[in-house]
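hi support,

uploading two proteins for the ticket. first:
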Amino acid sequence: MTIRESAEDYLESMLMMREQHGYIRSVDVAEHLGVTKPSVSYAVKRLRENGYLLMDVDGRITLTEAGEEIAQRIYTRHRVLTEYLMEIGVDETHAREDACKIEHDISEETFAAIRRLVTKQV
């Protein structure tokens, strides 16, 4: 199943919010992504309908196994690409911004090569 870039961004952000706060709330996702609360509500509805997350009665979000898998894949790409860009001299702010743009479009083959290069340096 293919998933749109925006959905990947939402899932990745949710994973990051869970790591930061121990829970996921729509308001935190909106702030992190710089989008409106209604935009997050719409995205949450679509992601829930597609089986990527659950929401409890208090509005707390939980990633399903499928949502977790996608979020972890994108977040790993983001971290590795950020590290790679910083290794080649890009400042951290630009490295993070550019990694976010690259993470969705880079092929598995190219990402694997970058990952091998980054892990050799560690």
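and the second one:
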Amino acid sequence: MAKHPLQLDGVFQALAHPTRRAVLGRLGAGPASIGELAAPFDMALPSFMKHIRYLESTGWIRTQKTGRVRTCALERESFDAAETWLGEQRQIWEDRTDRLERFVTTTKEKETPK
């Protein structure tokens, strides 16, 4: 994912904090207001809002204000970016372990007397 390294950095930094991961987990069930999202956390609303702003700036969520209520919803693109990068890494490591397995098997066959 060399073409979007800064975007990917923000995506994973957003996941680095347990509050932000919990917010994303809750939003997996559907959109929610800031009040609903903040309720389980023992922190001041301005502190919680920093997490919301960070998730929004890194593309994990979008917010929409209707009247006095700000609602948050998940954004698919950040999940796709993380999934693509993880898939690439998985493929690299699977290829390496496959090569190692072939090497071990070939070496064992050569060492085994017939």
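thanks. also noticed: The CA atoms of residues 60 and 75 lie 5 Å apart.
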